[in-house]
Each structure stands twice: as structure tokens, then as C-alpha cells.
Amino acid sequence: MLRYTLRRILLTVPVIVGILLVTFAIKSLIPTDAVTAMFEGQVTEAEGQQAIANMRAKYGLDQPWYVQFGRYVEGLSHGDLGTSVRTTRPVLDEIGFRYLKTLQLTFTALGVALLVGVTSGIVAAYRKDSWLDVTATTISLFGISMPAFFFSLLVIMVFSVWLKWLPVMPRGWEALLLPAVTLGLIEAAPLARVTRSSMLEILGREYMRAARAKGVGEAALLLRHALPNALLAVATIVGLQIGHLLSGAFIIEVIFGWRGIGELAVRAIEWRDFAITQGIILIGSGTFVMLNLVIDLLYTWIDPRISYETA
Amino acid sequence: MFRRMVLLAATLGCLVAPAWRTPARAAPARAADTVLHFRLGEDPETLYNIKSLSLTVNSVLGAYLLERLVYFDATGTPQPWLATGWTVSDDQKVVTFKLRSGVVFSDGTPFNAAAAKSQFDLVLDKANASPLLSRLGTLRKVEAPDPTTLVFSFSAPYAPFFANIAQAGFGFNSPTAIAKSGDQYGRNPVGTGPYMLKSWVPGTEITLVRNPHFQQFRGDALNKGAPYASQVVLTVISEEAVAQAALESGELTAANVAADAIDRMVQNPQFHTVINKVVTNLYFVEFNETHPPFNDPAMRQAVSFAINRDAVVKAAFNGYAHTANDPLANGIPGYDAAIGAKYGPTFDPAAAKALLAKAGWTPGPDGKLVKDGKAAMFSLKSYSGFEVVDRTLSVIQSNLADIGIGTKIETADWGSFYPSLLKPDWDIDLMRWTSSDPSILSLLFRSPGHRKATLENAAQDDILDRCNTLMDQKARTACVGEAQISLLQTATIAPVASDWVVIFTQANVKDYNLDFFNNLIPGDIQVAE
After folding, report:
1. Which residues partner with B96 through β-bridges?
2. Strand ranges in B237-352 using DSSP code E only, listed in sequence order
3. Which end of chain A has the lower number of beta carbons within 10 A, N or C?
4. Strands, sheet with B195-201, edge to edge from the N-terminal-most edge strand
């Protein structure tokens, strides 16, 4: 297991380098850069040409993209993600606390999604074709179909403006509540559907009938015998959902004013501040790859029959 | 498995825990300790004015933190602020200001001529690449012979000087604070304004508190003492709908809202409405004159005649704007409604069609005009992300289709759109510009124009250049009038509309006052219990 884990961690290096290479190549196709975006229309050529050229040289923006890439990788090797042209602060300083906030939002939303999605999936499967099943299935269909930005605005309107339960501009833990619940509920929908179908399959198996015949109680039957077997499919979908959660967090952060990397990414793209966008891509892709590794390792924990050593 | 699930829940709980440890929301402020809550559409990238011309940056610095030498009164005339007065030399190349004594920055250091000089020197130093440099025109040097005298020397008279130095970009920063904070000064600004920075949570909010050293020298301020409100909290809310919700829930003291929501808000007794119809912005259409057919003034004129400006105001701005037929917005000194009325475009599709027919365009089989075998199909570019721009483009597209001209709307974010206009492959664009001075006309349209797409016109260029050298207000106004007539006659610009400043304040807010350039005077604001 340790060897597998180390191998997977090492394999993330070429993946990340590949992502960086592609983004640098794409960047070379964009006609403007951070210096142009900052000064365009504000400094006339005659007055600012030399200073603009100096600034480009200072940040290495006057070099071909492959040279910039080489310098970036060299900087990365000693933990330097570059400096933002717009804010003049190191990228790590710009991203650091925001990354933690995005993780906080993502994992809280994941908790909400698991709680709501798995619970409603179990209930819907156990009460198949009942009004509970129909309601849960309809709501999950609604959740899958609803665009995140619209659902977010709806949540603010209902809970902050009409019911006045929470402020529109909350502080402290309240600030996390609405975005996490909103993002969590959106992601709960596919989880509910997968849990339901997986549970239905498990509940129809022979050994479930045998357990019931032996007098095992309904709660134990569901939670001890059926759910653990259904969780494998849930873990798979959670792995896929991490990408959704991270990208969904971008939209949710902007709407709810949650200052994570998503909100910063949107601004950095507007600014053409490639140092920041590259840093966010690097950290975002790294997080995605590592969390998927964790999910893969969780498989062995959920189902001891799975072993990567023999694979 | 149960144990494992408990472990999983506990792990998630640990990750979530930091959010639950953060302090709870503060209790509502007492009337005696009023806190004003306003919105910022974006987090300022810096709070150092010589580094940015961003409207957001300047809205924070200009209203709360920094003061200037002059302000403009309600008639658009410069009045002394941190200066007590000024004289202009006979050759109009030297302007000498006398400064107030006893003015102190919020860090306790004195504001004097040396401090003011250092600010202008930083802008004049090309190594700093300050976007403000172009606002200083022919200024060559600034001297401070004594603590209350500041001397500006120009290579040629520069008329926009007073309007330009009245803007937030030329608000004064403490040189001591600049030296102390180095390249992080933009995060720790220090000025002489009514408030000073208490904290800035990047991307979240900026909290300002009263500046204990503040003295009010503005003649147009109602409150001559310390600001009524003890704090100002500026919260970053990028979404219009969320800002509106915060206003409706009472969390914002005042805010503007999207045009569609204005009618509903006006009816709501929860709010007072502040509407200012004298504004400094202008939406206009301009052309790429470097290639046919828009190198022909008749073509440009035809497009201008085809635009139904009333429809634009109704569809894009929900009526909270006015149609424009003058190259200057009505809040810029030199604006003359009579010029627009006499020389400006009207909605006249028949006249547009006649001009097109005269230029050799004939209806093709599909109704589109054709000339020399080429259909009248042109690009119509603008910037994205603004509903009013999208709607204005749609109206213009429809208007042009009515006279047989097809257009392909192309929008991109400002960072892509504006540089793309330097390429030759576009025909028409919709632009919006705000300015405090008629020199905007020469910045935009003196050939080769701000996008190198304006044909050379020696006579027009001479007028535009001359307007920037006339220090006498009356003579300058006459010159600016000439420039506007020329720009309308050559159809270099097709003015479209100017949107109004519409602000909603909570009903218990009193004296939410804006100055001539629509900058807030925050010290006046009172909030009733």
C-alpha cells in the first residue's frame, strides 16, 4: 500500500507539469498580459513606453513562453510561485489564506452533500415508490438541473431577504453556512441518486433476504449490511464530485462573497495576472489529484477485498 | 464500519471547525456610534493613487482618505481645498498655489508644500509608469520654495490642469508613510481625509475610522466638523443581485442597483432615492476610419442618424438615462446643449437611407445594402459583462438592420476588447468613457485617435490642441464648443446616451451628498435613530 501511495504521489508530478505546460502554451495565444491590461488606455505610448517595457522585463513577460515556463518551474523548485503584477505581492501570499477558505467551503459542502445525499438515497431506496421516494427523486432531479448561480441567489432571497434568518453579508460562522449548504445541496442531488440505485441493487441481493430471514432488524439490515456495500459506488461518485465542488465553489464564492481562490481566479483572469491564475491552476489541480488519491485509498478501507498491492 | 463512519464524520468536522470558531457578527451600531455600510463592486488592487486609475480605487481614496488642492463647486468652478488660493502667470505657464498651514496627515506628520511636491514628482518620474502622468500634460516641474507655496511650471499652458488635480488621483499621501511602507504602501494608505484605514481584509471588506486630525476645508460640505459617522465599512459585493438584497435587508446604508430594479425600489418607502442627472459619462459609437466604408463621413453620419436613442434609453437603462447628441456629457465643463440641438444627430432613418443611397449603396436581394458587390455587413464591437451594453448593442443592431446594414456583435472583456481595437479588423464600436474635463475630446479623437483609427484632420486637431492651452474659462468654453461642432460635423463620434447616478439610501439616512463630479462627501451623512 505504501509503495502504491508513493508511486501515485510521484505520478502527480508529470500530471501537474503537463497541466502547467498546456496552460503556458494557451497563455501564449492570449494577445494581452497583465501589464497591458493594467496600463492599456491609461498611459499613452510616448509617456509610458519605457516604463511599461521595464515592467514587462521585471516580470519576465518580454520572454518567449517556454523561457517563462522554465523560469516558473525553476521558481517552483524552491517554493516560489512568482509575484502578482497587479498587486505586487507574492502569489503565495495572495493565494494562501484564500486556499484554506476554499478548502473549508469545499469540505463543509461535501459534509452537507454526504449527509443529505446519502440519507435521502437510503430513505428513497428503502421506501421505493412511496411518496418519500418520489419526493427525494424529484428534489434531486431539481438539484441536478438547477444552475448554481440561480440557486445561490434564490437561497439569499429566501433566507436573508424574506425570512431574515441570516444576513446577506454575514460574519464569522454564518458566512460559511449559506454557501456551504447551497453548494452541498447541489452536490447532494447526484449522491442521492447514486446511493438510491446502489442501495436498491444491494437490497435485492440474496444475502439481504437471508439476513432478514435470520431476524436481523431493519435498521441494522440497512446500515450494517446494505450501506457498507453501497458506499463503494458512493465513494466513486464523491471522487468525481470533488472536481465539481472545487469548480462549483468558484461560482458560489463570487456570489456569496466567500473570499476563496475562486473569487481571486475570476479577478486574476480579468487582470490577465498570469502569475495568480497559474498559481491557482497549480494548487487546484494538485488538490484534485491528491483528493482522488485519497478516494482511491479509501476503497481499500471501505472494501477490504480491494488491494492495490496485487493489482 | 460504524466506527469508520464516525471517524469520517469527525475528520470532516475538524476541517469545518475553524469556521465555527470565528467571532459572531457584531451587534447593531448605536446611533451615537454610527457605522456606514457601503458596497464595493470589487476589491481594490491597491490603495495607492499614483498606481491606478481604477474607479474603485479612486472611489475609496477620493471620498474618504485623500484630499486635493482644489474641488469643483456646483457650478463647475474650481475652489480652494488644501490650497487657500492660486495665481496664474501672465504667460499662463506658471501656476502658484498658497497652501493651508496646520494640515496634518492621519499619521500625525505635516502636510506642506514639500509633501505635495513629492507626490507630483512621483507621478512625473517616468520610471514609476504612473497612469496619472498623461493627466499632467505639459507640466515640467514642481517647486516648493517654502512650506505653504507650491509652484507648477509648464512648457505650455495646460487648461485641463485644475479639473485633473481635483480628482482622487491627485489626492495627497503622507511621504513619511510611503517611505515607511515601501512597496506595501498600497495596503497602508495615509492621507488627510475625513477617515483613515483601520483594517483591510483582502477581498472582503475595508474598515475606515474617523481621522482625529481631520479638518474640513471644503466650502460645499454641510458638516464643517468631524464626520458624523464614526466608521465606514466597505464590503466587497461583486454580484448586483446580492448588493440589492443587502440593501433591502437593511445591511447596506446606501447602494446603486441594476436599472431593471430601480422602478420597484423607487416605490419602496424603505428607501430615499438620490438621482443625479448631471453626469460625466457618455456612451457613444465610434468608427474605424482607416478603411472603407467608414472613412467616409457620410457613412458615419448615416449610422448616427439610424440610432434610436430613445429606444436605447428605454430598453437598456429602463429610462434612467438621457439621450445624448453632444460629444460631451452634461456634467463636463464646456457642455452646451444648444450645440447638440443644432449640430447633433437625431433619429432619422430616412435621412440615413438617403445618405447611403448617395454613397452608392443599393438594396440587395435579401434587403441588405450592397455596394461594389459587397454586402453591408460590419462588426459591432464592445466590452462584455454589462447588461446595459448588451441591450444597447441589440438596439443599435436592430436600428442598423432597419436601414439595410447588417452587423455582427462581438463582445469581449475589457482587457481583450480594448487592445483588439488597435487591430484593423473592426468597423464600429460602442464605448463608454467618463471624464472630468473636456480634454477627453482630444485624448479620444485627436488624430490618430485613442485607438489609432481616427483619420487625420488638421483643422480639427488644431482646435482640439488649442482647447487644451486656454486657461481663460470663457475662451476655453468657446473653443470646446468649436471642437464639438467639428466632431459632430465629421461624425467622428455618434453620441448615444448618458446614464444617471441613481443611489438608494435607507430612509433614515440624511444628507447623502454628491459633489460636482458625483463623488460622495461622507462627512455630511447622518443616520437617524
Report:
1. B87, B151
2. 254-255, 271-276, 281-287, 321-323
3. C
4. B35-40, B231-236, B205-210, B195-201
Distance from C-alpha of B488 to C-alpha of B494, rounded to nearest angstrom:
8
Cβ within 8 Å, pair B235-A169: yes
What is the C-alpha separation between B250 and B261, in angstroms, rounded? 16
- How far, in Å, CA of B399 to CA of B308, rounded? 7
CB B488 within 8 A of CB B327: yes
The CA distance from B93 to the nearest CA of chain A, in Å, is 20
- Residue B19: which of A173, A256, A259 has the nearest Cβ? A173
Please give, rounded to a whole number of angstroms, the shortest distance from the CA of A124 to a CA of chain B: 21
For A45-70, write each residue's pLDDT tens digit: 555 566 677 778 888 888 888 888 88
- Report the phi/psi class of residue B288: left, alpha or beta, with left for phi > 0 and alpha for psi in -120 to 50: beta
Phi first, then psi: give them for residue B375, nearest 5 degrees: -75, 150
Check A176 against B19: CB less than 8 A apart: yes
A168/A148 Cα distance (integer angstroms): 17
**pLDDT at residue A157, rounded to an integer:** 87
The tally of CA atoms less than 13 A away on the side-chain side of residue B200 is: 17
- The CATH architecture annotation of domain A97-264 reads Orthogonal Bundle (1.10)
Question: Are B492 and B304 spatial neighbours (Cβ–Cβ below 8 Å)?
Answer: no
Q: pLDDT tens across B227-282, in order? A: 999 999 999 998 888 899 999 989 999 999 888 889 889 999 999 999 999 999 99
Of the candidates A31, A103, A168, which has its C-beta nearest B249's C-beta? A168
Query: Nearest Cβ partner of B134 from A31, A47, A88?
Result: A47
The C-alpha cell of B165 is what? 488635480
pLDDT above 90 (res A299)? no
Do residue B183 and residue A88 have CB atoms under 8 angstroms apart? yes
A220 touches chain B (CB under 8 A): no
List CB contacts (< 8 A) between B418 and chain A: 40-41
**How many helices and strands in chain A, by DSSP H and E?**
13, 0
User: How far apart are the C-alpha atoms of A103 and A109, rounded to whole Å?
Assistant: 10
- Dihedral of CA atoms B511, B515, B518, B524 in degrees, nearest 10, equals -30
Segments making up each domain of chain A, as ranges: 97-264
Residue type, B298: A
Q: B379: closest CA among B421, B408, B341?
A: B408
Between helix A227-256 and helix A172-203 the angle, nearest 10°, is 150
pLDDT of B420-453, one tens digit each?
898 889 999 999 988 889 999 998 999 998 888 9
**Which CA distances in Å does B463 have to A311, B164, B459, B468?**
82, 20, 6, 9
Tell me the β-bridge partners of B430.
B285
Q: What is the pTM of this model?
A: 0.80
